[in-house]
Design brief:
two-stranded parallel ribbon; alpha+beta
């Protein structure tokens, strides 16, 4: 728990259970950590 400074998700969130994914990110991210999210372009 709370062991990562950064969590990065690149073009894959559309394949995930979003609420569960975000809960897990919150669980593993250190206080003051950075969450980077990139989503694919619809085109």
């Amino acid at each position: 728990d709370h062991c990562f400074d950064v969590v990065i998700c690149v073009a894959s969130i559309i394949y995930l259970d979003v609420p569960a994914f975000l809960q897990e990110c919150r669980r593993v991210l250190k206080k003051g950590g950075v969450f980077v999210l990139n989503t694919p372009n619809k085109d």
